[in-house]
Model the fold of this input.
Amino acid sequence: MRKLIALPVLSADALSSVAYGPEALLTVLVLAGTAGLAYSVPVAGAIVFLMLAVGLSYRQTIRAYPHGGGSYIVATDNLGRVPGLVAAAGLMTDYILTVAVSVSSGMAAVTSAVPGLADDAVLIGVLVIAVLLAGNLRGVRQAGALFAAPTYAFVIAITALVAVGVYDAAGRGFEPVPTPPLHAIEGVGLLLVMRSFASGSTAMTGIEAISNAVPAFKPVAWRNARTTLSWMIGLLIALFAGTMAMVYLEGVVPQSRETVLSQLAHRSFGSGAMYLFTQAATALVLLLAANTAYNDFPRVLYLLARDNHAPRIFLRLGDRLAFSNGIIVLSVTAVAVYVAFDGKTASLIPLYAVGVFLAFTLSQSGMVMHWWRKRDRHWRKSLCFNATGALLSAVVFITAGITKFTEGAWLAILTVALFLLVTTRIRRHYDKVGEALRLHPQTIEIPSGTITPQPCPPPDGPGAPSAGAEDSEAEDSPQEIRHLSVVPIDSLQQASMRALAYAASLQQPVLALHVSPSDEDAERFREAWSLWGDHLPLRIVLSPYRATVAPLISYLTSLHRQRPDLTITVILPEIVERHWWHRPLHSPLAGRLRRALRSLPKIVVTTVPFHV
Done:
């Protein structure tokens, strides 16, 4: 991507947080009345410093990980498996709440402009998430000016709002407008100020997005990514500080029926076209921010599944080259959270802060260890930046966890703990199954010679009958049936060997079929196949998008059309678990193939069980 496109697309999550971050800060301070609001400027200043420090920290991450370095990767590489899983838990909590908070805040922007929709806000929000689900399942991607426009529109709207507000304030000598009379519920104290700091810090969500997407930039990718990150941090600080300055000058306080941003827009623009433009731009950029989670959440699940910490179904791409299973999980979870908290942004913020800053803390701590071990050029400066970011992020995480524990932070902390428990159990299960499946020299039975039955020619091979050949199922006796056994092999392990042995025992032609994601993986499998002894004919099908079922079906369908005289038996190795709750951890390949091949005559799908 060019920087002009990458900036708005990857910054949507961070910049859109200006729509709810300042309000979250004020919602806490207003509990102490006018005395509490007096702390809004120093708290906002502390958050601006935090933005700058974390932004500089992620510049170092981009330099160290030019191929993309999210919190999970950085923490796992430098701190170990468990910190990596905790970082992944924080990230996934962040992405789920990005959808819920962005939609709830977007609905607040809409209902501020159209109050009549307030009673249906939760239902409309659920429909919005459903639209995001449908669009992403169909492979809609963030690209081009279409997705850049909402972010640029939002930046223009807030810039204009601040500019008009400053001009009006200059006319009265920058004298702040008195706030309306406020009834204090709490006294001003350190705990209240720290709670407001933790809530307002949610304006930093999405800062990590650019460091995750470094390969998407044009060359030199890491340098362009760092430049884009710098622009994003500068814009975020300017928009956040400008909004907070206008809140102070205009004497705006949070209201239940209208957002702070809507109140400021009313004061700057009245109720005309610019007000509607501001609200529309706010709603659209929040929608785009929610959509960014649909790219990142399935990717983290993919990385976890690749490392055997999540079910392997999350490795699979759908027909539209999207991680469909991860997209569905994100949508269902986001809807549950959104409905459970009645679509109210203020109720969701305490959960948000914990996940965001947990991931920040572990990522930056991992970078500290990275520089300490590597000690290359400028390592001391980079370590200092990352250590500062890690320390400040840890302060916010601990503050949010303590001060907002009873407001919902406990749920986020419990979710992280459960996530750690489940992912470690999944890894333990996969390790156990892997040990059971591992080939041992003393257990491998090598046939005495190459198995003699020859397979039919491949679909494009010589001697294949034409597609118009007779393909009836009218064989009247066993002697009239001509067999070919096809054994899909993922890797050479005990279950695969058992399926191959069963197929060879039938004394009919056998063809081993391997689906490989790349030429390199295909070559590695050929080497392993040759080492085993190359006892059976092998065909390798390339599938660069890691799909398995579609290439298998395509090959078998083509084979059936080329050789309709054959009865093709697809023999699948199947892992049989002792406990039912382990079944979702393994591929339901047999059932999917049966459903896909049911319409074709003379194709049989059978399984060879391997009990664990």
Observations:
- The radius of gyration is 29 Å.
- The first strand starts at residue 482 and ends at 488.
